Write the structure tokens for this entry.
Amino acid sequence: MPALQKLAGKFIVIEGLEGAGKSTAIQYIQDWLQQKEITEQNIELTREPGGTVLAEKMRDIVKMDVVGEQLDDKAELLIMYAARVQLVEHKIKPALAAGKVVIGDRHNWSSLAYQGGGRGIDLQLINDIKQVALGDFKADYTLFLDIEPELGLSRARGRGELDRIERLAIDFFNRSRAVFQQLTEQEENAECIDASQDFEQVKAAIHLQLDRWYASL
Ligand code: Z5A
């Protein structure tokens, strides 16, 4: 069967902590798709939160610093899902229906990891909200790029030393990482990639896992 026919309408997601190398990995996935002769016009890239005009506005709200008012954890969670519904309904589903391969830079697991693991919101509550917002919609295949938070943060900041605030964030990221690891173990169509390896090793590991998944389709 031609590769496009096999991969048409598939939603591949990359998850991981900050600085794990998700943007870099997306390039490796695109390279792999091109080896399968799937051209750019048959690939749709998305990122979360964001990815549509309105969802990008919601991303701005989440990232906004407001003097004297903090975004409540549950408000943050609901904005993540509002942005996700907007993206899924207006971009991802139409692209999948048109036979494209969609590559997502983060998706639902990020809410379980960050709002659940990191902020401590009950995972069952998050799953309930997910069900209301998206029903059974989910990724066809997820690659989790696993990295020590210290290494991810130092990569993301482009230097080795972390400042005091970043060190305080390590606990938060360790809790998020634990949820990502748990989800990878539970989910059948998901694999963990050791993202602490060098570029070439990460690329080879991603291509190997994609080959295995492809063979299973
Ligand atoms: N968030 C949430 O809380 N709940 C949700 O439901 C969702 C998201 C969907 C999005 O931030 C924030 O929203 C994020 C989670 C939260 N907050 N945090 N933390 P974002 O989109 O702005 O940030 P990010 O997703 O964490 O992206 P990032 O920092 O750009 O990370 P990345 O894409 O994984 O990394 P990269 O840009 O590919 O690589 C970072 C650097 O490392 C770069 O200089 C690379 O050249 C280098 N790199 C990459 N791979 C390697 C290897 N193998 N060796 C050495 N250096 C490398």
Q: What stands out?
A: The CA atoms of residues 54 and 86 lie 7 Å apart. Residues 3-216 form a domain with the Rossmann fold fold (CATH 3.40.50.300).
